[in-house]
Design goal:
Blueprint: H1 2-38, E1 41-48, E2 63-70, E3 77-78, E4 82-89, E5 97-103, E6 110-112, E7 120-122, E8 127-128, E9 133-139, E10 156-163, E11 168-174
């Protein structure tokens, strides 16, 4: 009888310990998933930008315009936590991968009025808030004359938006036209 009680106690201890370990793993997976999904940028659209307006973007002479919002369930994100990268090749006989990158800048991010899409306003702070729609011009070349991922007919470039401590968004930019206003996503 005593041996049976000892065996039952050991078996129940193993079952309880296994249950606790499974619960901890499930909680950690849920937290990781929440952080990955909740701290992410959702791209609404991207088009070839107004090339005369790109001069406001750190010496760039070409740009794309991106409209975006925070993914559902996101918390407020600081602009400097968001980085963007465009990856392309230089279209040479032996292609070289080029990258253009930057962080979101308070002076270049506009808050769109979703009730009246023709208007946008300057943001009052350095925060991106859930439920708001934003617009920004992203330069497609390095202002120092280095790498260049300009809009080029029939090319595809990769746009990556990353949030520090959150998720990343990958989008393929397909240039079927180089004309201002033509969609590339």
């Amino acid at each position: 009888f005593i041996a049976l009680i000892l065996v039952a106690a050991v078996a129940s201890a193993v079952i309880i310990q296994t249950g606790e370990k499974l619960q901890q793993n499930a909680q950690q997976t849920g937290t990781d998933t929440q952080q990955e999904i909740g701290g992410k940028i959702s791209i609404i659209t991207v088009w070839v930008g107004d090339q005369t307006d790109c001069s406001t973007v750190a010496g760039a002479d070409t740009c794309i315009t991106m409209v975006f919002e925070l993914a559902p369930g996101s918390d407020t994100i600081e602009e400097d936590q968001v980085t963007w990268t465009i990856i392309c090749d230089d279209a040479a006989a032996t292609p070289v991968i080029q990258t253009v990158f930057g962080t979101l800048d308070h002076d270049t991010v506009a808050l769109l009025d979703t009730m009246n899409a023709d208007t946008n306003t300057a943001k009052a702070d350095d925060l991106l808030n859930p439920g708001n729609v934003y617009m920004i011009n992203l330069q497609t070349n390095d202002a120092t004359g280095g790498d260049d991922c300009d809009a080029t007919l029939n090319e595809q470039h990769t746009l990556i938006i990353s949030v520090e401590g959150g998720g990343s968004t990958y989008e393929t930019l397909s240039y079927t036209s180089e004309d201002q206003g033509d969609s590339v996503v």
